[in-house]
């Protein structure tokens, strides 16, 4: 009986120590799809998938709470509103896929400001395998067959840089359950070039974690053991975007051979809101994302703003 009690005590101690270990890495995925909002809303940005791996980096700057290095592999797929056989020649957005690899470094400051930077290399066009991915996915789930990929944008090489900065507003008026942030970001490259700015707010169902420990901007990894972590909040982020260039609409900047391209609607209103949750080593979220009208063509009356859903799952590891 004494041996059994010893075994139980050892098991509990091991579980507690393992539970309280520092979690310095996170792996997971993000899946975007317009079907996550409506079975009838299959258009424009129609599917995205990203796999990510991030880890805590060495930090000797007292003003910075954390440095996090991150790697991603991803694919985005775009198509027109109508993808049935009778609408092959009716396109209000080009068919195209974008496949990329990304490396980034994120800085989380003691004052709850955030600076995120990343760099991408990838392919736009047939090399991105958008056609194969979408047709296979539709076949697996028994969804309608896709027509029109013969009109997709031709191959282009992608080189992208991205930076995002977020600053907490009214830090002296601290509230445990609501906060407000000013956020701006910029993209520069051969696929996307544009700037966005707006405001982000968190409204907590539980006491909010500091931004440098929150999954708001993916800062859950920590060198300090954490016990019984709970995070659950609603967030909303309206923003204004000015897009200078978008190869998924205009085609490659190095050639004009793509069969279907359009001019941009450069000024857009975007919005994102959703729920984010953490239970110890598990992160999850659901986001509803709206994008304003993206292209401008006098001959098209169907193109409009659109929306899609995004689901994110991550697990923290030691």
Assign the CATH architecture: Beta Barrel
Q: Any idea what the radius of gyration is?
A: 22 Å
Q: Which strand order spans the largest sheet, edge to edge or round the barrel?
A: 1-2-3-4-5-6-7-8-9-11-12-14
Number of discrete domains: 1
Shape: elongated
User: CATH superfamily membership, which one?
Assistant: Outer membrane protein
Number of E strands: 14
Sheet-strand content, in percent, reads over 45%
The CATH class turns out to be Mainly Beta
Helix % is: 10-25%
Q: What summary fits the major beta sheet?
A: 12 strands, antiparallel, barrel
The parts where pLDDT drops under 50 for at least 5 residues are: 9-19
Secondary structural class: mainly beta
What's the end-to-end separation, in Å?
Answer: 34 Å
Task: Please give the count of helices.
Answer: 3
Question: What's the order of the H and E elements?
Answer: HEEEEEHEEEEHEEEEE
CATH fold type? Lipocalin
Q: Can you give the mean pLDDT? A: 91
SSE diagram, text form:
Layout: H1 2-19, E1 25-33, E2 44-57, E3 64-79, E4 96-109, E5 114-124, H2 130-141, E6 156-169, E7 178-189, E8 192-204, E9 230-246, H3 247-250, E10 263-264, E11 267-279, E12 282-291, E13 295-296, E14 306-317
Antiparallel strand pairs: 1-2, 1-14, 2-3, 3-4, 4-5, 5-6, 6-7, 7-8, 8-9, 9-11, 10-13, 11-12, 12-14
């Amino acid at each position: 009986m004494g041996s059994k009690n010893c075994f139980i005590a050892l098991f509990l101690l091991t579980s507690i120590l393992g539970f309280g270990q520092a979690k310095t890495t996170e792996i997971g995925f993000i899946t975007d799809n317009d079907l996550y909002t409506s079975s009838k809303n299959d258009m424009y940005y129609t599917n995205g998938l990203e796999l990510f791996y991030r880890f805590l980096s060495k930090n000797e700057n007292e003003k910075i709470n954390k440095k996090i290095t991150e790697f991603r592999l991803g694919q985005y797929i775009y198509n027109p509103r109508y993808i049935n056989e009778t609408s092959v020649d009716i396109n209000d957005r080009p068919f195209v896929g974008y496949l990329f690899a990304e490396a980034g470094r994120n800085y989380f400051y003691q004052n709850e400001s955030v600076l995120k930077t990343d760099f991408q290399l990838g392919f736009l066009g047939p090399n991105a395998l958008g056609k194969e991915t979408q047709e296979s996915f539709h076949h697996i789930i028994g969804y309608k067959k896709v027509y029109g990929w013969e009109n997709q944008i031709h191959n282009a090489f992608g080189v992208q840089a991205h930076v995002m900065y977020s600053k907490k507003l009214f830090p002296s008026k601290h509230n445990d359950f609501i906060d407000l942030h000013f956020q701006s970001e910029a993209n520069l490259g051969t696929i996307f070039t544009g700037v966005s700015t707006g405001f982000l707010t968190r409204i907590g169902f539980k006491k909010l974690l500091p931004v440098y420990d929150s999954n708001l901007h993916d800062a859950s990894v920590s060198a300090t053991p954490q016990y019984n972590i709970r995070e659950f909040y609603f967030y909303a982020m309206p923003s204004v975007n000015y897009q200078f260039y978008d190869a998924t609409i205009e085609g490659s900047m190095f050639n004009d051979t793509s069969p279907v391209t359009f001019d941009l609607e450069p000024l857009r209103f975007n919005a994102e809101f959703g729920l984010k949750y953490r239970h110890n080593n598990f992160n999850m979220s659901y986001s509803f994302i709206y994008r304003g009208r993206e292209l401008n063509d006098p001959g098209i009356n169907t193109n409009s703003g659109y929306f899609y859903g995004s689901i994110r799952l991550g697990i923290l590891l030691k």
